[in-house]
Each structure stands twice: as structure tokens, then as C-alpha cells.
Amino acid sequence: MEEKKLDAQESIELITRMIRNTRQRLERHSGRPFLIWGYTTVGISLLNYTLNIVGADPEWSLTWFLIPVLGFVLMRLFPEKRSTEPRTEIDRIVNALWRVCSLSLIPIFILCIFHGWSYRPSLFALITLVMSIGTAATGQIVRSKIYTAAGFLGMAGTAAIALWDFYLKQLPDPQRINCYMLNNETLIFAAIFLVMMVIPGHIINYRTRHEK
After folding, report:
1. Is 171 left (phi over 0), alpha (psi -120 to 50) or beta?
2. Which of 9, 68, 184, 186 is 20 to 30 A (C-alpha) from 156?
3. What is the dihedral of CA 124, 108, 131, 74, to 10 degrees?
4. pTM for the full model?
5. What is the SS3 string spanning the chain?
6. Which candidate, 77, 66, 73, 71, places its Cα nearest to that of 37?
């Protein structure tokens, strides 16, 4: 049987419907991963902040590698409900986007392994930038104000890390600079994920519950 060819108006309507369906599905099911990865990142950041305060080695902390481990375990322990709705091409695009963003974090962690945490400001900035790009791009693709706003707020946080690092480098005492960088940039990093993932995750879950 010959497939029906769509005219321009029908093609636009089909794409618009696909985007709308994907946006609705994402906003129903994305609260869980946002909260899991957001709270995991914030929790491990605060743990490292505490370790730094009590005098742990400031140049190296394997506890940061608990983020992907705990995140993966929690995603397995709290799986989302299987959706009966068919997947669209927009779903495939969004999934491919986050797959690339996730894989791009691997060389960042490799950089950390070989150079230690002396590159902490650059590592924090790279991680937040990658996650911000993924979030904002998802928002633009599916036309979600929540995703878009969260992503651009994350980018603003990345700029804040860079500006904070620049400010600290102007201070004369290297030892005091390292101390400030160690503690305050960890808190900035945690705050970015709180704003970029935890708060949007709660907003999405709130909307989902009240739509039922």
C-alpha cells in the first residue's frame, strides 16, 4: 500500500503534535530523575564541603565519584512507570542529546583523575555547563519553559563560578585563596544543581499531581 504524502500544513501539524506529546510525557516523568540526580549532587557536594571544613585532603576526594554511582543505583531502585504512549522522533532526539551530554562527562572525570582537584573551578564549570546545555536544549526542543529556565539559570551559575574564581585569583595570599576556592565554590556548585534540578523537579511533580 502506498504511503500517504503529507502536505506542508499536515507536516507542521504532525511535528507540533509530536512536540506537544513529548513535552507532556517529559513533564510527567522527568521530576523523578531531576530530583534523584539533583539531590545526589547537592548531597555529595555538601559532604565534601564538610570534609573540607574538618581538614580532609583538599587536593583529592573520591567521594565525588559517588554521584554517578548513587544516581544510577537510585534510578534503578525507583524506576518510572512504563508509559503506554508511543515514542516519537522528538523522544529519540532528546534521549540522544542526554546520551551525548552524559558521555561528555567521562573526559571531565578523567581530567580529574590525572590532575587532581587543583582544577576544581574548571571541573565544576565544565560539569555545570554540560548539564545546563542539556537542560536548556531539551527545553527549547520540547518548548518547555521549566526546562529552558532551569538550563539558562545553570549557565548563569557557570558564569558565577568563573567570576568567583577570577575574583579569588586577585587576592594576594595563595593559601587563603585555596581555602576560599575549596569551600565556597563547592557551595556554589551545590546551589546551581539545587536551582537547576531540585527545584524544577519539585515543580514538575507538583504539576503532575494536580493534573491527575
Report:
1. beta
2. 68
3. -100
4. 0.78
5. CCCCCCCHHHHHHHHHHHHHHHHHHHHHHCHHHHHHHHHHHHHHHHHHHHHHHCCCCCCCCHHHHHHHHHHHHHHHHCCCCCCCCCCCHHHHHHHHHHHHHHHHHHHHHHHHHHHHHHHHHHHHHHHHHHHHHHHHHHHHHHCCHHHHHHHHHHHHHHHHHHHHHHHHHCCCCHHHHHHHHHHHHHHHHHHHHHHHHHHHHHHHHHHHHHHC
6. 71
Whole-number Å distance between alpha carbons of 43 and 67 = 9
Per-residue pLDDT tens digits for 2-24: 455 556 676 777 777 777 776 66
